[in-house]
Structure formats: structure tokens, C-alpha cells
Write a structure and sequence with these properties.
Strand order of the largest sheet: 2-1-3-4-5
Distance between the termini: 57 Å
Strand content: 5-15%
CATH superfamily of the largest domain: Reverse transcriptase/Diguanylate cyclase domain
Structural class: alpha/beta
Largest sheet: 5 strands, parallel
Shape: elongated
Helix content: 55-70%
CATH architecture of the largest domain: 2-Layer Sandwich
């Protein structure tokens, strides 16, 4: 790792000797400039942000001491070595008190100087490496928290406007907009009906890994979220005032995604996308619309852009779709009345269709059944044998009447097999206890769902219905309230308290706490400190 050096001295022969005598290249140090006084040196600091500065004390225009004061005022964190004559020793002592790493006496002992520069360069490299590692840890923490929150937003469980979500380092949720891509493994539901749960999990894991690296763009911030088996959303995040993505960009990314999955996993996917800009409050609606779009494009490896004027969007807006969503919503909420009402209205809407529309209605119902089967798998309402039997019925059902009957059977099956209220309450009591016991660790939906023996999607639905808030909202609130108690009742440091409530990064803990409480942990502690009498 190369570091950058700046040399400042008013004596030209000293500058030349410094450049020539020291083995800069061998020490992996690049000289970014030489200056004859402190004023020139400040210009180089602004332009190049050097890591190491060798600076004389006595110079015209601006001496080394004033340069030091001005550089530090600018926020310069460079390691500075002062070059000083014997009679300037008092200056050197003062300089050491103001953040100078060391001083070198004139006439210069170049061997001693080389040894000092090597040591300082190593210090710089260590600090840079530590900073890089800290930024990676911070980035990972933010990414995980962001993904947990955005899953709830896409599923429609929350708007994302919660006061204790850290969405972005410097921006509020309403300043961010998105492009959204939906990736669906072609024929996944029928193809995998006889696979074991472990086989399906491995294939889904493999595809997600490919999607993580499929978009090759260093400046782009995006997240890959698995919504259900065989289906992922890629969220591309932008600042509202800097939304510059083009239709060609997103189309190229979609094609790259298809190619990457085909090459690395030997499976094919279809991709639908809305370029946006989509505000966070509209993401759930957009996700459902893209789902419908891909259902209506049955062929493999489809690439379907969806915008205000696209035929794909119009096709996905068939009036009966809202009734399908009503049925699915009722399934998820274990609301039998809602499911039956949606089915009755769907049947009534199909009674008076014209012969011209018959083929379109049959196609529509076929896709509705596929959609219901996938949702029922996620909710664990079908065994493998039952799902296989339903696929067999679907293959032999060709008329509107046959297809409606299959839907009726699915609805009846839902009513018969859905978990009753009592058993769902027991699951949520177990979940609450598990959360309380593990607030200090990085618990996630997948961990608790596995502990309870249910799918992640079904756990999220039960949790939202039972507690009235999402898993992330609930856990964050529990952690923040515990942190408040620890801040007022103990003398443990902010870092220690953050670790105790599940935040290994003090920086992230502070940000979440500040959004929740309206002040930093230190400010909260000071405000609520007991009054001494």
C-alpha cells in the first residue's frame, strides 16, 4: 500500500537531497509535491491530501509553525515531521505538543531520517488498514439492517418511515428513491415440487450469491432480497436529487443478471423491472405489480420493462387482480371471511364474460392458481404430496369452470389447514421469549423462524398480525428501551451498553439510538443523570 508524501523547505538543495537520497520507491512512498514555503504547502495539502509531510520550521511567506496551525485548522490529519536547526529547538518542542509526529535536526542525518520515515509510513498504513476494516464492518452492519427493513417495506408490513430506522448515513427515507428489479426462476414452483427442503434451500442460496455480484458497478448501492422461494427483488437506491439511471442501464443489468444465473447455476430466470424513480412508500405496490407482470409472461427468460405506458403494466392491471390479492391477503391473515368474499367476487366477475374473453380468462385463472400455490408453499399450507396433486389437477383443468373449481379447492384447503388462533399465539409467545433471551446477539428472522420450525415469510406475517409491528421495529424498540435503562442505572460505557443490546458497532448503535430517542446516548445519560444532593 503506497502512501503520499509532501516536502516543504525553502532551501532548494535540501529539497533535492530529500528527493534523491531517500529510497522513496523502495519504501512505497509517492512524492506528490515539493513546496518552498508553508503557503505553497497548504495548496498541495488541499489538492493531494498527503499522508506524510516533511516541513522546515523557518521559511519566508509562511513558516512551519503557521503552516502547522493552518493545516490542522483545515482538518489535515497528515503525519508531520519538522526539520529544525539547533537554535529552533523550542519551536520543535511546541510543534510536538500540536500533533507533530517527530522532528529532525539540521544538518540532516539521512540514515536517521530514512528510519524515521519508514516507521511513520508503517503507522500510516496500519491506520489506513484499520480504517478500511472499520468501514467494511460499518458497511456490513448497515447493509444487514437495511435488508431487514426493506423486506418489510416490500411486503407491505411497514412504510419504512419508522423513527428508529437508519436507512442511509446522511439522508432521510423521504430523500431516497429506487429502481426495482424482480427476478423469478422460470417454472420454479412446478419444477421443485418434489425437491427436499434442503435441496431448495441450497439452490436458492446459490442463486442469491450470483445475484449479489451480477451488477458490476462500484458506485451503485443495491440490495438483493429474497421475497419467497425462487423469487428475489433487487433494489437500486438513489438520492432523489441525483437520479441519473437510464432505461438502457437497467435493461443491461437485467440481461447481465440472466446471463450470470445461466452461467453459474445452470438455471434460467425472467426479469421484470420498473426504472422509477419509486419512492419508498410505493415499493410494495410496485413489487406486487411486477409479480403479476411475470405471471402473465409465461415463457422462459423474459425481460420485461414496466413503466406508466407499457403494455405489460396495463396487462397486470386487470380488474380481477385486486380480488386475487384479497384472497392471498386473507390467507396470510388467516381471515376465512376475507378469503371467501374474494373468491365469491372473483367467481361473480367471471360469470358474464364474452366468448372473445374466454381464452384470456382461462389464461388469467391459470396464472392465479400458480400464484396461490406459491403463496401457500410459503405459508406451509400444503404438504409435498398435496401440492403435487394440485399441479396434476391444474394440468387437466382447461375450462374456466374447472379452473375456478381448483381455486375453490385451494381456498377450502386453506380454511382446513391454516393454523388456528391458539397455535399461532403460542408460536408468537415463544418468539417473544426467544427475542428477550437473545437481545444481546444479532438475531434475525431466519434464525427465529428456524427455531420455531416455520418459514421466514410465514413468521413475518404472524409476527406483524400478532404484535402490530414488524420484527425489526419490535426488536429495535426492545433494545432501545433496555439501552435507556442501562444508561441511567449503570456507569457502563456507551460502547459496552451497545454490545449488551446487540450492537457491536458503537457508531451504528449511536445512530439508531439518536433516531429513536432524539438524542445521542451520551446526551440521554447526561439529561437523565440522578441529581446529587
Amino acid at each position: 500500500m503506497n502512501v503520499k508524501a509532501l516536502l516543504i523547505d525553502d532551501e532548494v538543495h535540501i529539497l533535492n537531497n530529500l528527493k534523491i537520497v531517500l529510497p522513496w520507491e523502495e519504501m512505497q512512498i509517492d512524492i506528490v509535491g515539493t513546496a518552498r514555503n508553508g503557503a505553497e504547502g497548504l495548496d498541495f495539502v488541499r489538492q493531494h491530501e498527503p499522508d506524510i509531510i516533511l516541513c522546515d520550521i523557518r521559511m519566508p511567506v509562511m513558516d512551519g509553525m503557521e503552516f502547522l496551525r493552518q493545516a490542522r485548522k483545515m482538518g489535515c490529519e497528515s503525519e508531520i515531521l519538522m526539520l529544525t536547526g539547533y537554535q529552533e529547538f523550542e519551536y520543535a518542542r511546541i510543534a510536538l505538543q500540536h500533533g507533530v509526529r517527530d522532528y529532525i535536526s539540521k544538518p540532516i542525518n539521512y540514515e536517521e531520517l530514512e528510519d524515521t520515515v519508514r516507521k511513520v509510513a508503517d503507522i500510516v498504513r496500519s491506520r489506513k488498514l484499520e480504517k478500511t476494516m472499520a468501514e467494511r464492518r460499518w458497511g456490513k452492519v448497515i447493509s444487514l439492517a437495511y435488508e431487514k427493513m426493506m423486506f418489510d417495506v416490500l411486503m407491505g408490513f411497514t412504510s419504512g418511515n419508522s423513527s428508529y430506522f437508519v436507512v442511509d448515513d446522511d439522508h432521510q427515507a423521504d430523500q431516497l428513491v429506487y429502481s426495482l428489479l424482480l427476478i423469478d426462476l422460470d417454472g420454479y414452483a412446478q419444477r421443485t415440487v418434489t425437491w427436499s427442503e434442503n435441496e431448495r434451500r441450497l439452490w436458492n442460496f446459490a442463486v442469491r450469491n450470483v445475484l449479489q455480484d451480477a451488477i458490476n458497478n462500484d458506485w451503485l448501492k443495491y440490495a438483493v432480497l429474497q421475497m419467497r422461494e425462487g423469487e428475489w427483488c433487487i433494489l437500486l437506491q438513489f438520492y432523489k436529487d441525483r437520479f441519473t439511471v437510464s432505461a438502457q442501464d437497467v435493461s443491461a443489468w437485467a440481461a447481465a443478471i440472466q446471463q450470470a444465473v445461466r452461467e453459474h447455476v445452470k438455471l434460467t430466470v425472467s426479469v421484470a423491472w420498473d426504472i422509477g424513480p419509486i419512492p419508498m412508500t410505493s415499493l410494495s405496490h410496485t413489487y406486487k405489480r411486477l409479480q403479476r407482470v411475470l405471471l402473465l409472461h409465461a415463457d422462459n427468460e423474459q425481460l420485461v420493462p414496466v413503466d406508466e405506458s407499457s403494455t405489460a403494466r396495463q396487462a397486470a392491471s386487470v380488474s380481477q387482480w385486486h380480488l386475487v390479492e384479497e384472497i392471498v391477503s386473507g390467507m396470510k391473515q388467516n381471515d376465512k371471511t376475507k378469503v371467501e368474499r374474494g373468491l365469491q367476487e372473483l367467481q361473480a366477475s367471471l360469470l358474464h364474460i364474452s366468448e372473445q374473453s374466454l381464452v384470456r380468462a382461462e389464461k388469467f385463472l391459470h396464472y392465479v392458481i400458480i400464484h396461490l400455490l406459491r403463496e401457500m408453499r410459503e405459508l406451509e399450507l400444503l404438504s409435498t404430496a398435496e401440492e403435487e396433486a394440485m399441479w396434476d389437477k391444474l394440468q387437466h383443468s382447461v375450462s374456466v369452470k374447472d379452473l375456478v373449481n381448483v381455486i375453490s379447492q385451494l381456498v377450502h384447503h386453506t380454511k382446513e389447514h391454516a393454523l388456528n388462533k391458539k397455535s399461532s399465539e403460542l408460536l408468537m409467545i415463544s418468539a417473544r421469549d426467544y427475542i428477550q433471551r437473545n437481545l444481546g446477539s444479532d438475531i434475525g428472522i431466519d434464525e427465529i423462524a428456524d427455531y420455531l420450525g416455520i418459514s421466514c415469510s410465514y413468521f413475518s406475517l404472524l409476527f406483524k398480525n400478532h404484535f402490530g409491528e414488524t420484527f425489526v421495529e419490535y426488536v429495535t424498540k426492545q433494545r432501545m428501551e433496555l439501552a435507556k435503562s442501562l444508561l441511567t442505572m449503570t456507569d457502563k460505557s456507551v460502547t459496552q451498553i451497545g454490545n449488551m443490546v446487540g450492537y457491536s458497532e458503537r457508531r451504528y448503535f449511536t445512530k439508531v439510538f439518536q433516531k429513536y430517542a432524539g438524542m445521542t446516548p451520551s446526551e440521554f445519560r447526561e439529561k437523565h443523570a440522578p441529581i446529587e444532593r
